[in-house]
Amino acid sequence: MTIQGDTDVVVRTSPQVDEGDHERFTHIVLEGYTPKDGDFVALENSVVGAMINATPVRALCGKVWVPGRDPQKYPLCPTCKEIATSLGWSLPEG
């Protein structure tokens, strides 16, 4: 979007992510889902299980890694956030 005035300012609504930036974000991992007429269905994508067993998980954005860092120390991955909000998920602030 461009804002008109004395100076033209270009505002990007989606952050640009460079190679390696996925290492600096907290990612969202889908561990399971609940169908409309059913019970919770667990997927083989558990963050806690991955931390204990040193096995990889896949984030919504596609990043595959073995979790081991404190996710509260990093900002939320913009791609994961965009996917989650487009699905109507509510995300915690901060």
Structural description of this entry:
- With 94 residues, this protein is an alpha+beta fold.
- The chain has one domain (19-86).
- It is built from two helices and six strands; from the N terminus they run ββββαββα.
- It has a two-stranded antiparallel sheet. Strands 3-4 form a two-stranded antiparallel ribbon. A two-stranded antiparallel ribbon has the order 5-6.
- β5 and β6 (64-65) form a beta hairpin.
- It starts with a strand and ends in an 8-residue tail after the last helix.
Short description:
This protein has 94 residues and is α+β, with helices and mostly antiparallel strands. The chain has helices at 47-53, 78-86, and strands at residues 2-3, 9-10, 32-33, 41-42, 57-58, 64-65. The protein is globular.
* Largest sheet data: 2 strands, antiparallel
What does the average pLDDT come to?
78
- How does the overall form come out from the CA principal axes? globular
Structure summary, number of beta strands = 6
List low-confidence stretches: 1-5, 9-18
Strand order of the largest sheet: 1-2
- Ends distance: 25 Å
Helix content: 10-25%
* DSSP helical segment count: 2
Order of helices and strands: EEEEHEEH
How large, in whole angstroms, is the Cα Rg? 17 Å
Number of domains: 1
- Decide which structural class fits the backbone: alpha+beta
Which percent range describes the beta-strand content? 5-15%
Characteristics:
94 residues, alpha+beta, two-stranded antiparallel ribbon, two-stranded antiparallel sheet, 2 helices, 6 strands, disordered N terminus
List the helices and strands and how they pair.
Layout (H helix, E strand, L loop, with lengths): L1 E2 L5 E2 L21 E2 L7 E2 L4 H7 L3 E2 L5 E2 L12 H9 L8
Antiparallel strand pairs: 1-2, 3-4, 5-6
